[in-house]
Amino acid sequence: MYEAFYKFQGKPFRLTPDPSMLFPSKGHKRAMSYLMYGFEQGEGFVMVTGAVGTGKTLLIQKLFEDLAHRNVTVANIASANLDSEDVLPAVASELNLPFEGRSKEALLHDLKQHLVARSARHSRTLLVVDEAQTLTPAALEMLRILTNLEQRGRALLQVFLVGQSDLREIIVANRMEQLRQRIIATFRLEPMEPEESREYILHRLHAVGWKNDPRFDPTIFAGVHHASRGIPRKINLIMDRLLLFGYLEDRHELDHAALTTVLNELREEMPDIPQTLEPTLPLRGVAPASSTSAVEHENELLELELKRNNILKQLLHEEDRLKRILRGGAGAREDAGGTGELRPVGLGGGSK
Predict the structure, then answer these.
(1) What is the pLDDT of residue 107?
(2) Cis peptide before 214 (omega within 30 of 0)
(3) Which among 128, 171, 214, 226 counts the fewest CB atoms within 10 Å?
(4) What is the Cα–Cα distance from 249 to 293, expressed in whole angstroms?
């Protein structure tokens, strides 16, 4: 509809994830660095969390594109309240292994044999679990057991957990210490700041050939950020409706009054939706939020995560420094302190 009216080459604000439209926000670039660092370790868990609509699924799709040229088999499960007995059949199905009528022991045997065969061909296997906050604690424990599968000291399976912030609470509230110790990298996607929100909107418009038609009043960008709270999916919803409004009203300039009209229409259509970033649904296997012990464990997890992220940040910087040194040259030797020696990074706890 409005695409032809404004001479766009496509729809700029689709709600479905599209890797070709990925905006390289500061948060997404850092998250991708952590994902790739975790992937290179080849073991354990990597966890990415964030509010609904912050772009977690899009981030994972971009990861798949980046891994396409590598010798990696990716099994992707969009979990829907899986329990422990559902995990093995779901993984087997994604790896094209027979699972109907197979016992747990038989599935574990088949899965290990399959992973061993792939490892012998120098091929890795990565399991990505989307919407992981819907997994029961027993299902998470089964995934931990799968990461125990190894041959000659090398893990046969690595697991990426992607979910809403509830995922952290499930792990903390159920005292899943063994799983927590296997999380080698974790990142929380946050909503965009006002300026990044503006850049995101312009990035998507330019991607479809926008030539300043329609013209946007500068107040539009601040208004959209305020209404969406910097959540990409909400920005897409508001901007899509704003462009539709412009088409229906035959407008080539959109101002704050037009945005106000669109926001009022959206509120009238969904009057009972709470003004929160995430739905307040009961969590499976999680103690009430008023539990003091759960809060204490959450604080402990956040403190450990901060320390881990500081260490990972140092490692990423050190890896970049070492690459420059190995490329040789006087400049690289100066980077090493003028001695030409490689100096190890200290991991005793980075600056906060």
Answers:
(1) 93
(2) yes
(3) 226
(4) 56
Q: Is 73 helix (H, G, I), strand (E, B) or coil?
A: strand
Task: List C-alpha distances in Å: 297 to 155, 209, 302, 350.
Answer: 29, 49, 9, 22
Q: What is the DSSP letter of 212?
A: S
CATH class in words for 26-189: alpha beta
Tell me the residue type at 4: A
- Report d(CA 139, CA 151) in Å as an integer: 23
Q: Report the length, in residues, of the chain.
A: 352
Asked if 158 and 146 count as a contact pair (C-beta separation under 8 A), the reply is: no
pLDDT of residue 291: 39
The low-confidence residues of the chain, meaning pLDDT below 50, are 273-295, 298, 330-352
Phi–psi pair at 339, nearest 5 degrees? -105, -15
Q: State the Cα–Cα distance between residues 94 and 126, nearest whole angstrom.
A: 11
What's the Cα-to-Cα distance from 237 to each of 3, 165, 231, 346, rounded to whole Å?
A: 15, 22, 10, 46
Please tell me the predicted confidence (pLDDT) of residue 337: 46
Q: Which of 166, 156, 157, 158 is nearest to 132 (CA)?
A: 166
pTM over 0.70: yes
- Predicted pLDDT of residue 224: 96
Strand-pairing partners, residue 158, are 126
pLDDT confidence of residue 306? 55
Q: What is the pLDDT of residue 303?
A: 58
Assign residue 144 a region (left: φ > 0; alpha: ψ between -120 and 50; beta: otherwise): alpha
pLDDT at 307: 61
DSSP collapsed to 3 states, 287-340 = CCCCCHHHHHHHHHHHHHHHHHHHHHHHHHHHHHHHHHHHCCCHHHHHHCCCCC
pLDDT at 282: 38
Q: What is the pLDDT of residue 340?
A: 40
Q: Where are the beta strands (DSSP E) in the chain?
A: 45-50, 72-78, 124-130, 150-151, 154-155, 158-163, 183-189, 215-216, 253-254
- Contact assessment for residue 282 and residue 169, using Cβ atoms and an 8 Å cutoff: no
Q: Could you give the 3-state DSSP secondary structure of residue 129?
A: strand
**Would you kindly state where each structural domain of the chain is located, as residue ranges?**
2-19+192-269, 26-189
